[in-house]
Design goal:
The complex is a heterodimer of chains A (405) and B (381). With 405 residues, chain A is α/β, with parallel strands linked by helices. Chain A has two domains: 165 residues, 2-Layer Sandwich (VC0802-like), CATH 3.30.2130.30; 209 residues, HUPs (Rossmann fold, 3-Layer(aba) Sandwich), CATH 3.40.50.620. Chain A is 38% helix and 20% strand. In chain A, strands 1, 2, 3, 4, 5, 6, 7, 8 and 9 form a nine-stranded mixed β-sheet that branches. The longest helix of chain A is centred in the middle third of the chain and has 19 residues. Chain B is globular, with a radius of gyration of 21 Å. In chain B, helix 2 runs parallel beside helix 9 and helix 10 packs parallel to helix 15. Helix content of chain B is 43%, strand content 14%. Chain B has 15 helices and twelve strands. A seven-stranded mixed β-sheet of chain B has the order 2-8-7-6-5-3-4, with helices on both faces. The chains are: A alpha/beta (405), B alpha/beta (381). At the A-B interface, loops of A face helix 1, helix 2 and helix 9 of B. Chain B: GO terms for molecular function: cysteine desulfurase activity; iron-sulfur cluster binding; metal ion binding.
Chain lengths: 405, 381
């Protein structure tokens, strides 16, 4: 069908009292950002609904994007017709026919914001219902749980008809809950943690540690491509890469094997915290899940978390691996995550890391290192890039070779 | 020059050759190497695979590169035999397959496998009843070609697929060497097929390269054991220049496929209608939907096929006695033999095979020369 607009219903944000306006404005901004390459669209974020006027743009492409915008409860593609009963009748029949299969039931649901219109809601329901019953043989009316609901909204500027309600992504508009930093590796968990943070309205920046030549260029590209997979939910994402080779070599050389992991992680968290501070990020997110690997015990978290007072938030902390994988598959990061490149978390993994490291020990071993100097040098090599939705970084996924093929 | 022997081989397209030479000179790393040169080559290899997969509407990991149609056929048949011999030793094929299939089958027979060769009717089509009767509990493979290389008959692939839906364990192979780019992709890449083999040089890619579709989850023993390339199923350093060139050739082939097919069908029809008028002509290819749009096989009774080929050659028109593979061996066409065409007529058969670049003007010239030659042969006949 040639829809003329998409009507968007807000989610939780309608309960946000005084902040409501700010939430709606932000959602409007995010929607415009997501749909920036549809030049003819007009997005109107009103108090109770958002109206996206299509002006000829492809409704299904627009709706596919909308499903990735947090803060939307659901939306309906609609058709605007003149305030003329005959025109409404015609469109109503076409819309029902689009989804009608033998034996289905329907009802009409009219709302009137313009009370000057000549028919009231009941009269409109009767008129359209009767017309559809006469026009489509076999169709029946059912008030409770019909198969098809045709919504009719009578407004001053026209009459809007819709027959479908499509679920949105829920959550809160990205950016309304402040800005945080996600420690992204190449694994399955951290992108999922990022997705969940975005879902609650957090704007994210990514920090990634890489250790050439122990980790390959491909591992770095993989983290970037994972970031690009999250971008549709977030708009553009800043990707901060931190060279970590010297720190890892030093830790490996100077710290007892059992505490390698703990001390390394303390370094990562320190650096992330310093960057976050500088970049006005209010919290650090990571993909830790309790009990999954040796470093992910409460003892280990205590020993690592010690280096910062910033909140370290772990959205997947209590999820089972299967639950994490399910989300990863849903958001399209899983297949990438399982590509076998060594990342900085897997190299130098000691054969038997301490599952219950002690905080004093970790502090003691660390104190033997030139912590500040190491961190300073790592920070000097930091590179920040901006990643947008759909970008490809892995060579086998990029279209570098388009002209050859 | 008029080249009407495209089922034997095709001319490498200039754009394809360009890719071949660019890749040879600038992306020559081994895709298995870990360094950047290898990574770059690996990237191109996988991009080529992805492009081919997309063009066929299948997944990237279902495409395997081979050295061509013959290897593909050998691999599916012998690989299935090795993989599945504990479940059964019976294979089914048709009596008009390409020698790559028939001779692979013959080799397996010597090793104790049993093969049923389905007969064909007078138009070169197998019957479903024969297939159904041939199926046994120990059948492990059904191998059927999409388009016969000698007369252009299209086998009833969808119906065969429907029959085999009831036998989910049997491997179903389609030799699509002559079928790609001929407007029947939906029949070939059907819901039931497990393996499909292709050859690059039949669609303007270089020699020595081909590929196979293998349905995800189907098992096939490798014939080339070695360094583990192609997921350890087909070892040997990948022929990257040819692979990239083939991916491009396939894209070019399938661009505006319907239009190209319609043009070839029109040329075929033109020749058909102008040749069949002569009383001594016997036509084996037909114009209906059960025949490919690019192959026309006929005889002038009493004149040997090779005589006709050479006579046309004097006018710079190149055609072939049935299949190129057997044409130098003075054996009669296997397909026509299976169609029970008398030997005397079968030895006269010639084949016109078109590609998307042939024109109606070439066909007019062909018909003009045909007329002339027909009169000339009438004197000695």
């Amino acid at each position: 069908m040639q829809y003329t607009e998409i009507m968007v219903r807000y989610g939780e944000l309608s309960t946000k009292g005084k902040n409501r306006r700010a939430f709606i404005d932000r959602l409007g901004f995010n929607v415009r950002e997501t749909l920036h390459d549809f030049p003819d669209l007009v997005v109107k974020a009103n108090r109770d609904r958002m109206h996206i006027q299509l002006h000829g743009e492809d409704s299904s492409a627009v709706m596919a994007r909308l499903q990735q915008v947090f803060g939307i409860q659901n939306f309906s593609p609609s058709i605007k017709v003149e305030r003329d009963v005959e025109a409404v009748k015609q469109t109503a029949v076409a819309m029902i026919k689009e989804h009608y299969q033998a034996g289905m039931t329907f009802k009409i649901n009219t709302r009137r914001s313009d009370h000057d219109f000549k028919l009231d809601t009941n009269e409109m329901n009767d008129l359209l219902g009767g017309h559809i019953l006469r026009t489509i043989p076999g169709i029946k009316v059912k008030m409770k749980q019909p198969d098809l609901i045709l919504r009719v909204e009578i407004r001053q500027n026209g009459i809007f008809l819709s027959s479908q309600t499509i679920d949105g992504a829920g959550g809160l508009p990205v950016g309304t809950a402040g800005k945080g930093m996600l420690m992204i590796s190449g694994g399955i968990d951290s992108p999922v943690a990022g997705y969940l943070a975005l879902k609650r309205g957090v704007e994210l920046e990514m920090v990634h540690f890489f250790s050439p030549p122990y980790t390959s260029e491909q591992a770095l590209n993989k983290a970037k491509e994972l970031t690009a997979k999250l971008a549709p939910f977030a708009g553009r994402i800043k990707f901060i890469e931190v060279p970590f080779t010297e720190i890892q070599e030093t830790v490996k050389h100077d710290v007892p094997a059992g505490y390698l992991m703990t001390v390394q992680r303390r370094f990562m968290l320190r650096i992330a915290a310093l960057l976050a501070d500088k970049r006005d990020d209010l919290a650090i997110f990571n993909g830790e899940s309790l009990g999954q690997v040796a470093s992910q015990t409460l003892e280990s978290m205590v020993a690592i978390n010690d280096v910062t007072t910033l909140p370290v938030l772990r959205p997947v902390v209590s999820l089972d691996k299967n639950e994490i994988i399910e989300i990863a598959q849903k958001i399209g990061t899983f297949e990438l995550s399982v590509m076998p490149f060594e990342d900085c978390c897997t190299i130098f993994a000691p054969p038997a890391p301490k599952t219950k490291p002690r905080l004093e020990r970790a502090r003691l071993y660390e104190s033997r290192l030139a912590v500040d100097a190491l961190i300073k040098r790592a920070l000097a090599g930091v590179k920040v890039t901006e990643i947008r939705s759909g970008e490809k970084f892995l060579t086998e996924n990029s279209d570098t070779f388009a002209e050859l093929l | 020059m008029i080249y009407f022997d495209n089922s034997a081989t095709t001319k490498v397209a200039p754009a394809v050759l360009e890719t071949y030479s660019k890749v040879s000179s600038s992306i020559w790393g081994n895709p298995s190497s870990l360094h950047a040169l290898g990574e770059q080559a690996f990237g191109l290899l996988e991009q080529s695979r992805l492009q081919i997969a997309k063009l066929l509407g299948v997944a990237q990991d279902e495409i395997y590169f081979t050295s061509g149609g013959t290897e593909g056929d050998n691999w599916v048949i012998k690989g299935t035999a090795i993989e599945k011999q504990i479940y059964g030793k019976h294979l089914i094929t048709s009596s008009i397959e390409h020698p790559a299939v028939l001779n692979s089958m013959a080799q397996l027979e010597k090793l104790g496998f049993e093969v049923t060769y389905l007969p064909v009717d007078q138009h070169g089509h197998v019957s479903l009843t024969d297939l159904e009767q041939a199926l046994r509990p120990d059948t492990i493979l059904v191998s059927i070609m999409a388009v016969n290389n000698e007369i252009g008959a299209i086998q009833p692939l969808e119906q065969i697929a429907a029959v085999l839906q009831n036998y989910p364990k049997i491997h179903f192979h389609i030799d699509a060497v002559q079928g790609i780019g001929k407007g029947i992709q939906k029949l070939i890449m059907n819901e039931r097929v497990d393996f499909v083999t292709f050859s690059g040089h039949k669609f303007h890619a270089p020699r020595g390269i081909g590929f196979m579709y293998k349905r995800r989850g189907r098992k096939l023993a490798p014939l080339m054991s070695g360094g583990g390339q192609e997921k350890n199923l087909r070892s040997g350093t990948e022929n990257l220049p040819a692979i990239a060139a083939m991916a491009k050739a396939l894209r070019l082939l399938l661009t505006d496929e319907q239009e190209k097919v319609a043009r070839q069908a029109k040329i075929k029809q033109f020749i058909y209608e102008n040749v069949i008028k002569y009383p001594k002509v016997t036509m084996f290819s037909q114009l209906d939907q059960t025949f490919a749009p690019h192959i026309l096989c006929f005889t002038i009774d009493g004149v040997r096929g090779e005589t006709i080929v050479h006579a046309f050659e004097e006018h710079q028109i190149y055609l072939s006695t049935t299949s190129a593979c057997s044409s130098k061996k003075h054996v009669i066409s296997g397909t026509l033999n299976a169609m029970k065409v008398p030997e005397k007529i079968a030895t006269s058969a010639v084949r016109v095979s078109l590609d998307e670049h042939n024109t109606l003007e070439e066909a007019q010239e062909f018909v003009r020369v045909f007329e002339q030659l027909y009169q000339r042969f009438a004197k000695i006949n």
